[in-house]
Predict the 3D structure of the following.
Amino acid sequence: MNTKNYFKINYIESVLLVVVFITLNFFNIIFRKILYLFNLSDGIIFSISYTIPFIFLFMLISYQAKKKKLFINISYKFSPWYIYIIIFLMMLSIIIVNEYISSIIPRNGPILGKMYKEVDKFLKEEIKNPIPFFSTTVLLAPICEEVFFRGIILNGMLKNNINPIKAVIFSSFLFGLTHMNPWQLIGGLIIGSFIGFTYVITNSIIDCILLHIMNNLLAIISIFIFIKKNRNNIFLEDNIFNYLYPFIISILLLIIGSYILLKIKKNNNIKNI
């Protein structure tokens, strides 16, 4: 019999953790100014300051778990090779779906226009230091964010017997919310939900990290291409209805892939009985 007392979390505690995370990011502005005193490059400061809130948060959660004698059960196992073929194809499909849907959100106007210019300005400034930007976005971000949002929040909600669908959607909403703009909020909800679904199926944080890496890598490549061509978004340059067929095909692939994964999980559960 398993007598371990697992780390569990509810809706309110999930929100509080994210509030603490956002608050730490605001204080992080002060920490960045301190780092400038050491004559570090902007790229290095970006990488260091990005990880600080996560490190502090992980230490806080670990301390509280140890104090209450709770076991944070995060699985770092690898899935069978055929699972990766399925989820990578599905990830490509969900990226297309996300790009299509998020492109509908306006990028002009007194509020959204100003917000989008700030996001665009931030990206253009950060890619001036390509190596730190790439390593942070493609490596550090997937690891830190997946451990936090899927490994701690989603996993904790599932251990608390919260309905998996509700847990996946709620944790993904919080994930999108931390990006502080409507386009990545939608992206966080859509892509985060798929990554969360994958976690429910495979119970592996490694799978989540690999999917996140794939998404961010493709996003970085597209940013370099679009900025080089003086474009912001592929769907903004063309009529989005020209991409309706790829959108529909992606939806069909997601449905088929989800069916296969659910069937695999069901078969594995039967074998484990």
Remarks:
- The chain has one domain: 11-272.
- The first helix runs from residue 11 to 36.
- Confidence is low (pLDDT under 50) at residues 232-238.
- The two ends are 14 Å apart (CA to CA).
